[in-house]
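User: Can you model how magnesium ion sits in this protein?
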Amino acid sequence: MTKLHVILCGSAGGRARAVLERSGIVGLRLSAARDSYDLPGIDPTDPPDMLIANGYYSEDPIFKNWRRRRSTTLQVIWIVKKRDARPRSEGDGEGIVLPESDLAALPYMVEFALREKGRPATDASERSAKPDEGPVRRIVGRSRAIQKVIASARKVLNVNSSVLVLGESGTGKELVASMVHRESARLNKPFVKVNCAAIPETLLESELFGIERRIATGVDRRIGKFEQAHGGTIFLDEIGDMTLFTQAKILRILQEKEFERVGGTESIRVDARIIAATNKDLSVEIAAGRFRSDLFYRLNVINIRIPPLRERREDIPDLVRHFVDTYSRENSLPRKKVPDDIMNVLMQYEWPGNVRELENAVERAVVIGDEDQIRRHDLPATILNALNLAPESPENPDSFNTRVADFERSLLIDALERCNWVQARAARKLGMSERSMWHLFKKYNLEELKAEGRGRRRGRRQNPMQERGTL
Ligand SMILES: Nc1ncnc2c1ncn2[C@@H]1O[C@H](COP(=O)(O)OP(=O)(O)OP(=O)(O)O)[C@@H](O)[C@H]1O
Ligand SMILES: [Mg+2]
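Assistant: Here's the modeled complex, given as structure tokens:
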């Protein structure tokens, strides 16, 4: 994919660079300009896709002129000091305005722009795409509680009312939402997921409703999430964390069932089934004035509550076997046995992170364990500590397994040292996936060594400065 060329202007550009570099987004090429007067000096054969600058440069004629000549598809993000800053003259309001206090949302906006760049913005392609559909996953569990959840979901497959899925984090809300879509008559249409908490307010309307082409700013026409979901299902996730502004927008579309694209005049009607989810207790949110009760009643036509895993422990053995199968297959590993004592440990634990926590624990045990069965020391320390269990009797120091483990650990430390403890780099060096590196890093408890190793390096780097008396 071609990289997104971003020009960072002036002081806001400097701060933006720091945020973008920390975010680890790939696919960006960053260059800097002192201010808008510096822009004409930038290589004219290498036009930028995006400009990030202090608001509002567009006042100055050099910038206007430059933008007209150089690039018609330039996206501009203005960083403004105050949340309520207003453009100074007409035409300045083009582009996205981001208050300095929301700078953390910048990577999201840039990713959004990257996605836009990588895909043609025509209705046909948008509609046939199924952007958020991953591999099909089965709902596992034989408890009455989970069977009741499945039965309630099946009852509402082909009605059009909104469904609200409730449950603690990691209980399987998204899984249930996707099942309702998959088993409904809408299955061949898109299932579009919107993380309501993550969209910055400045992008909300264009993200949800789309935007009309605007010649002045070079913004291309974009189809919003609601339109993408036409004929299918729109999954509004994390609705308990939406700002009141977002809630008002969502409520409007639920009431009126039609909307206009940003900058457009045509009313668009969509037929999209709405499924919403949250791990928050909405009655508490409503009482605290953080959630609109009118929106709650709209969404809560049908509600499905998934109980936490600790209230349906009889699901644990099936889930464990299911995840052992899945991750052995995914990593081409032989299928490990789960001895009774391990199953007992897993049955006793409280699972505050619910099925997601169990899934991660099993995946880790499948990948790092080096025997044909899962052992206690393959389980995360959080589980053993919570149950006051020791990681198991010390290994015989001369056994084959211990010696292989010692060798493995020293290989890792060596590679990590050479790569300044950047795990991704060390993984590449050793020809393994970042995921395996992550698991091994945890298995050998390398966190402390990493802190020490980095500290040593910093110390070494500072010495020459001290000699020169600059510190
Ligand atoms: N009953 C189940 N059978 C199989 N897998 C499950 C089950 N419940 C949850 N999972 C798996 O657990 C993980 C977490 O589920 P999911 O993302 O649906 O949870 P969630 O309730 O949406 O969590 P959050 O509130 O944190 O977003 C997923 O990988 C999902 O496939
Ligand atoms: Mg979820």
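A couple of observations from the model: The chain has four domains: 4-118, 144-307, 311-386, 400-460. Residues 173 and 409 are 38 Å apart (CA to CA).
User: Helpful, thanks.
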